[in-house]
Amino acid sequence: MITSLHSPHVEAVKALLGSRGNKERREKALFVIEGAQNIREALSSDAKKIKTMYLTDEGRARIPDIDLTGIEVLDVSPQVMAAMTDTVTPQGILALATIDNQEFAPWLEEQSEAKSNARPINIAYFWQLQDPGNAGTVIRAADAFGFDAILFSDNSVDIHSPKVVRSSAGSLWHIPIFEEVDWKELSQWAERSKSRLLALTAHGDSELATEIAKKVSSSSIWIFGNEARGLPEEITSDAKVARVTIPMSGRAESLNLATAASVVMYAVAEGNK
Once rounded to an integer, what is the mean pLDDT over residues 6-30? Predict the structure, then answer.
């Protein structure tokens, strides 16, 4: 059992969670998963991505039914777990998982070929999304409403940061997610594949319900902007992009980005039925 707060394991985990965590995660191609639910989802989706698991006695009691064969499991004291974790009340279970730097363009081409005679592909693209909580929420929403993938542009939040991983509540493992996706490259792919581009804006040319009612059979890429600045003119002024708005009958001035994206994804899912 690891009991020393100066253990190399403690230092390695803290480095992945610290102020330089983004750089450390990219260099090591590792990130931290905390909590029983997230780890259960990770193991059930792809156990091979779990490199090391740290458990206290309490943590072991939370996952008595999980087969840990083939995984490096290290027992730690509650004090060591508290030093390693990013949460106020740790559950006694923490793991290191490998980061899979999958390229989005080949994946999209594969999906296009595989689904050429099936239902359209629905993708959500987030331009410079910054808030970890919003990122986790939209990942969960995309998972819940059956979207095929989520794309994040450059200058977006690190999806492997601890807050995003926690707030995704396991959905991080259920849906393909791609970072650093260039808008021009995405636009070119959409044109080649004859996919629709639809941007959510405060003052759109059409309402969400109108677009959903069209029952268009082509694949769709729904575009969402930065929390404070919205979308750049490069996207909103593109003639290939349909500007869509969510009408509101109440007195609220606007919707939180994650809420608006969730509304859109739910509407798309309903429209596909």
Answer: 94
